[in-house]
Write a structure and sequence with these properties.
Serine Threonine Protein Phosphatase 5, Tetratricopeptide repeat, 17 strands, five-stranded mixed sheet, 21 helices, eight-stranded antiparallel sheet, 49% helix
Amino acid sequence: MVIIQIFTLNSKILPQNRLNFQRKRTIINAKMKKKTYALKYMLYPTVKQRQLLDQAFGCARFIFNWGLDKKIEAYKKDKTKLSYFDLAKQLTQLKKQEEYKWLNDVANVVLQQSLRNLETAFSNFFSNQSFGYPNFKSKAHSKKVAKYIENVCFDFVLNRIQIPRVGKVRFAPNRVFDPTKDFPKTLTVSRDSCGTYWCTIVIQSNEVCPPKAKVDKSKAIGIDMGLKNLITCSDGSTVDNQHFNKKQALKLAHLQRALQRKKVGSNRREQARIRLAKCYRHIRNQREDYLHKLTTSLVRDYDVLCIENLNVKGMMQNHHLAGAIGEMGWFEFKRQLQYKCEWNGKHLVEVDRFFPSSKTCGECGYKNETLQLSERTWRCPNCKTVLDRDINAANNILREGFSILESPSVSGDKDVEGKDNSLPAKRQYSKSCSHNIKGKQAYNYQKKSTNTREQNPTDAEEQYQLGQYYKQEHNISQAIYWWRLAAEQGHYNAWLELDQYMDANEANERGLKFNKAQRYDEAKAYFMIAAKRGHKNACYNVGLCYEYGRGISRNISMACYYYKKAADLGHSKAAHKLTILQS
């Protein structure tokens, strides 16, 4: 019998050999990103188990509202900000009261995770105002969710899952994961609007994401997203819009009219509501399946994918096109491309949303300021070339994406999270992209002296290989020291290693030092490394570099991008700078 159990990591539960294996893997891959994915299974609970799950959903919703009310009252009374630990202590006392004894009928972890979700909601609000202030959850319209983090067992032989205080629930094993390679973290049980119960398990895999593939122009493609066609590629191919909503429009209209004819509160109205919800779920599943097949084929066939960073939320404000834009699923398309490129070691480059891809002639570079949205083809006044609007835009996106990817001193490559990975331009030590230095070569160099500090090599290539040796010995601090010396002499591969391993605070301090010495190339590179890790001061300094052209070409749009990023992280001067530039 194959049983996989989620526990907190302690030696009383897990075997000792597994503990040693996990600790060893953590040391080796301390700076490498592992794959994290989720598996979703449909549950088939009994009538009694449905009641217990619904009770868990209700208790989680009640505790969320209770914690939100406590935080609001405390702040109004004397400006006190209650943390998760304060609310957790009060929750223990609340469960002892006779009036709230029913809270003990559900697993305590469900209530605690509900308070965790409340804390996350406030953190998101204070870090980014677009999330909105947390609201009270409605009994009728809120999501039915309960989260578990321990004492959950999977049995893939009998197809049962053991949920605390609920029992063994049957599920559909559409996919099995390997417990020797994958480590389950959390389990979320939910119920959708159709009344179907689901469980989602988040799994941390020991498999490390592969390094980025070598840039090859023959395996690159530019993608222009539109409404007539879902995407138009730079090679001239197009992917049609399937119009899943329009195909089901008559059925949706029939089900909606049937729902309105039923008496409010009756069983038949509930049955009609479920039929309508299942139709919407079918449309959503069709769209997701279509996008998954499309993104998988793109990532499999190409190593470099260039897309536009569209402001979908802002475009949805146009009520004439909101329905058509929402039907396309642009955000979901981009999200799938992001994690699939990361998992497969492919490059995903996002071109700035203000780049005039459609108005720029792909042959001569002429910008047609008078181009209207209704014009699908146009003739360039300069070179007289007849251009298809979408194909021309896809070619321009590909060209701009390569300029970003191949010119890291200007704007750098963007990773799957849209963060910059900028490095100084290649200099005399920029050899071919062979980042994996052979261990024997580094080891032979190390054998020359037992005390490398006394030897103190001054050649950048030797310093870089010495850093590679310490990397293989898992001494990252020493490796960073030698990579830093090599990088400051212009060694490009050393900058690549620093970008992967260097700490944000250390990188920002080095950037300030070189900025004071007016060595702007090195300062900008260190600021970029720190900005990639979310350092607000570094983001502000990168914005200054772009605004005043320090060690980089002057680019106001990129300056605004980094000022906005720093302002979102809480930098007041960046917000002021952003207001001035945008005005």
